[in-house]
Here is the input.
Amino acid sequence: MQLNTFEALEQQLQSGQWQQADRLTWQIMLTIALQQEQEYLALATVQRNLLMVLEPREYLTEKDLTMFPCHDLSQINQLWCKYSNAHFGFSVQRQIWQQLAGDYMAVGDRLGWRFNGIWQEYETISFSLAAPIGHLPWWGTLVFDNWWLGGFWMEAIANRLVVCEL
Here is the structure.
């Protein structure tokens, strides 16, 4: 990922532009995941002499999350933790995930992503330091439209955070 992309994220976080930083975080993650997939397809095309085309998409898959580069995930996490004074960040979310033994409903409740048993839409998410600890970045941005129907994505990213030692 280009340094200036991370610099843009850092500027938004430093100035407390939490919503813009949240959106940029997922744009960065999707770009990195699609670049990895494109590289894999290019290699597969050469090795198998097949033409393989990357389908355009605007979400991350479970595979994207389990293969996401640790150095990029670490850089994103460090920026979120630094500028929120460890109020936000993937590592904060991972700690909560582990404390709640991977119960994605309980995690959603604790992070403020679920209220009265209902998963919140992006428009209702809080973008301030008054939000619950670990509230951002919001994982709902990164997956399919019906992301709340299962915890596979939450488990996938939580496991990647453990592998990456975040």
Remarks:
- Residues 143-150 have pLDDT under 50 and may be disordered.
- The two ends are 19 Å apart (CA to CA).
- The chain has seven helices and two strands.
- The helical segments are 3-14, 18-48, 62-67, 70-83, 90-99, 104-111, 152-163.
